[in-house]
Specification:
binds adenine; 8 strands; binds zinc ion
Length: 338
């Protein structure tokens, strides 16, 4: 391991943009397919990996929803979560605020409880055995209508004390945040935090909508905000956290090369950017690989990497005491690594 990789691995960090269904590795996909007697349209793990070549978000989403079809039982979701947490622990992750897509599962006939009970039990095990804390963000699929999102929020009612917030994901272009204004207002009234994917493929106008119509607490991705100087200035001044995902941006052709990734520009502008893996099983790496990719591609300094790690805790939904504890752990690590 290089010095840089070693420094990154030891740096305490939180992940704020991770779709748990996007952490389904081909090996586990095959195992669950066999366990649940679900035939996959691939003969081998290699064949699955070879199919992971995308030219845009929709290309990826088609295969991602198909892959999630092997998840059938609480145990499957528990195993999925634990596999992710082990990877996170190996990368120096201490905390994760994970997205899950209940509609992907309820639309296949699974009860809402199966996915969430399995994930919650994996989360409890990860805290006990790995010392990793986590919370859940329920994402509405934006290619579906707002009534379907309301039905999902209703199904989530018995679990509201165990759900941190709601988010908005899936096909962005053509499905602006304003389509979900009412259900986000209802989620806020229920005491939930609000986040939304905006400005991944969609225009700056979608980021404005997420801020002004949904009143989000964080923007997921937000890359295209940089096309609008007034918007960028507003995000800087308000200290809005952006959950940026470098390897995702590369694989979904949001950028052509990590050397051209906007992360360094974002840091230099003073945006509260964080570094995340999005769908690591599909995009070629977990949070550590994302840190390393931008560190090498953009020549980030150790100070830049520390800022990314600090932003991940400061922008989390943890309480102030926990945030301060993690920030102090980063300072202690940096002092010991000097
Ligand atoms: N669902 C899973 N990953 C996603 C992404 N990067 N953008 C939108 N929806 C998603
Ligand atoms: Zn995402």
């Amino acid at each position: 391991m290089t010095d840089l990789a070693h420094f990154i691995t030891g740096l305490p960090k939180a992940e704020l943009h991770l779709h748990i269904e996007g952490s389904l590795e081909p090996e586990l996909m095959f195992e669950l397919g066999q366990r649940n007697r679900i035939a996959l349209p691939f003969k081998s793990v290699e064949e699955v990996r070879a199919a992971y070549s995308f030219s845009n978000l929709q290309d990826f989403l088609d295969i991602y929803y198909q892959g999630a079809g092997v998840l059938m039982t609480e145990q499957d979701f528990h195993d999925l979560a634990m596999a992710y947490f082990k990877r996170l622990a190996a990368d120096g992750g201490r905390h994760s605020e994970m997205f899950f897509d209940p509609q992907t599962h309820t639309d296949r006939g699974l009860p809402f409880s199966v996915a969430i009970d399995g994930l919650l039990s994996g989360m409890a095990e990860a805290e006990k055995t790995l010392g990793i804390t986590s919370s859940l963000i329920l994402c509405f699929l934006r290619h579906l209508d707002e009534d379907a999102a309301f039905a999902t929020l209703k199904a989530a009612e018995p679990y509201l004390d165990r759900i941190q917030g709601v988010g908005l994901d899936s096909s962005e272009v053509g499905h602006p945040p304003s389509k979900f204004a009412k259900v986000f207002a209802a989620a806020k009234s229920a005491g939930l935090k609000l986040v939304a994917h905006a400005g991944e493929e969609g225009p700056p106008a979608y980021v404005y909508e997420a801020l002004d119509i949904l009143h989000v607490d964080r923007i997921d991705h937000g890359n295209r905000s940089l096309e609008d100087a007034a918007l960028t200035d507003r995000l800087v001044k308000s200290g809005m956290t952006l959950t940026v995902c470098p390897l995702s941006n590369l694989k979904l052709c949001v950028v052509d090369d990590l050397k051209a990734h906007p992360m360094k520009r974002m840091l230099d502008l003073g945006l509260k950017v964080t570094c995340n893996s999005d769908d690591p099983a599909y995009f070629g790496g977990y949070i550590g690989a994302n840190f390393l990719g931008v560190a090498e591609g953009l020549g980030l300094s150790r100070d830049d990497l520390v800022t990314l790690a600090k932003n991940s805790f400061a922008g989390s939904f943890l309480d102030e005491l926990s945030i301060n504890k993690h920030l102090a752990a980063i300072d202690a690590y940096v002092a010991s690594a000097a």
